[in-house]
């Protein structure tokens, strides 16, 4: 599961900002950000994520596709494995078609 609060914290830390600075930078209240980081709030609305993305000049896709996120690294590896399997199945289908043509 994607760690939305962790990603927000990461974006703040990457900019070497404290919570107050990041709040001013993003337009999200300092109290809201502090509550998120302390775990007092669990759910982040898409409106908040959009504000943070706009301020950080990243897309929502970039926000959720953080390449350093272990879940994304695993998903990327699984996607490659899936693509490899699909390619192998397609080659096998061609071989089967060719064998069937020879038999006829």
Question: Descriptors for this entry?
Answer:
2 domains, 434 Repressor (Amino-terminal Domain), mainly alpha, rod-shaped, 104 residues, 0% strand
Average pLDDT score: 85
Unreliable parts = none
CATH architecture of the largest domain: Orthogonal Bundle
Helical/strand content category: mainly alpha
CATH top level of the largest domain is Mainly Alpha
How large, in whole angstroms, is the Cα Rg?
Answer: 22 Å
What is the share of helical residues? over 70%
Give a topology summary:
Elements: H1 4-14, H2 19-26, H3 30-38, H4 46-56, H5 60-64, H6 70-103
Report on this model:
It is a single chain. This protein has helices at 4-14, 19-26, 30-38, 46-56, 60-64, 70-103. By secondary structure, the chain is mainly α. It is built from six helices and no strands. The chain has two domains: 1-66, lambda repressor-like DNA-binding domains (434 Repressor (Amino-terminal Domain)), CATH 1.10.260.40; 67-104. The longest helix has 34 residues, at 70-103.
Structure described in brief:
The chain has about 100 residues and is an all-alpha fold. Helices cover about 75% and strands about 0% of the residues.
């Amino acid at each position: 599961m994607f760690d939305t609060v962790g990603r927000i914290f990461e974006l703040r830390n990457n900019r070497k900002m404290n919570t107050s600075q990041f709040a001013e930078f993003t337009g999200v209240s300092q109290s809201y950000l502090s509550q998120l980081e302390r775990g007092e709030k669990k759910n982040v609305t898409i409106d908040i994520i959009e504000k943070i993305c706009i301020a950080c000049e990243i897309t929502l896709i970039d926000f959720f596709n953080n390449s350093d996120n272990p879940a994304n690294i695993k998903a990327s590896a699984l996607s490659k494995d899936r693509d490899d399997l699909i390619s192998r199945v397609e080659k096998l289908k061609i071989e089967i078609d060719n064998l069937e043509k020879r038999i006829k």
